[in-house]
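Reply to dn_fold:

You asked what the input looked like. This is it:
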Amino acid sequence: MPTPRTVLLTGAAGGLGTLMRELLPAYGYTLRLFDVRPVEGAPEAITADLNDKAALREAVRGVDAVLHLAGISLEAPFEKILRSNIEGTYHLYEAAHEAGVARIVFASSNHAVGYTPRPLDTDPLIPVDTPRRPDTLYGLSKAFGEDLAQFYWDKYGMETVSVRIGSCFAEPTSVRMLSVWMSPADGARLFHAALSAAEVGHTVVYGSSANTRLWWDLTSARALGYAPQDDSEPFAEKLIAAQGELDPDNEAHAYLGGPFVTDPPIWPY
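and this is what came back:
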């Protein structure tokens, strides 16, 4: 696939969307911004809900690809998850399909497999084909998004890279995050690879940096051309001194989804 020139960025006002607004133009992209909230400093951005079909049709008109970051990113009542993450994602795929958009990069989450036991030191890394085990309604909505992406590829030939994002912040804020952290710079590298790689069909990848304490297998991401440059290890000593090592007997430490598996989930995580 030729590198897209114009990319629709949904969720452009969110934390990850704000980071990508700053980083992706350096890769040659022109970003069309979409969010339910006004995007600060971007009066030309489209301010609309994902369920506004007319706004979505206008948003996807003429774009080469979509980077879909919009949606609720924490646990919430089912009605809100349904409207934003499930119905909203479906409406985006429908609009993109009708407009002939070739590819979507979908922000999935490690919480689609959150009840997978985290690997111990001697265990192999978790592969992308591990059975899905959502840890929340939020994680369930991301599993739906991956299935939706597969359906649109099989039915209509519209490609998707589903990125099971760990945590993308300037630096990790917990001991758990040392294993799932993706630096903003590596996030931009991965999204660029997902947008520009050839013949992806529907590919699922994990989204993290090349962390020393990595839990999951990045082989499918590297196959797209992703070459992570960062590692969370420089932050480890300070975080472990403050929080202690992960305890395998603690439910919030025993699974890939961390405190999302607790009832209710523990924030912050």
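The first strand starts at residue 6 and ends at 10.
Hope that clears it up.
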